[in-house]
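Figure 3 (text version): structure tokens given as input.
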């Protein structure tokens, strides 16, 4: 907000408050995106706690089967020489190791 004189010459009672221009549509969208990013950043710890609780509850049941499946896919990829199977098997084994680390950390 700023003060402006309607006649251009200051005098008693001639000043009035003139609102500044409203933000443009682009500025409003950027502000909304920034608010959404802030909300997401603040919710990350909550999601992390829920994910950790879920993994701690169901992990011991699924981990042996997933580890065996990952090792089987990895060995199949190595024997057949298919790179995609090597990558998928390695990722499965890596996910199991990461889950064990996060659960026991």
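Below: residues designed for each position.
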């Amino acid at each position: 907000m700023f003060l402006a004189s309607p006649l251009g010459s200051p005098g008693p009672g001639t000043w009035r408050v003139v609102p500044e221009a409203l933000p443009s549509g682009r500025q409003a969208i950027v502000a909304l995106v920034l608010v959404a990013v802030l909300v997401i950043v603040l919710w990350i710890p909550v999601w992390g706690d829920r994910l950790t609780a879920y993994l701690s509850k169901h992990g011991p049941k699924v981990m042996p089967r997933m580890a065996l499946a990952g090792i089987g896919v990895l060995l199949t990829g190595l024997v057949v020489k298919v790179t995609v199977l090597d990558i998928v098997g390695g990722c499965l084994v890596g996910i199991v190791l990461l889950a064990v680390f996060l659960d026991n950390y």
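Strands lie at 2-4, 16-18.
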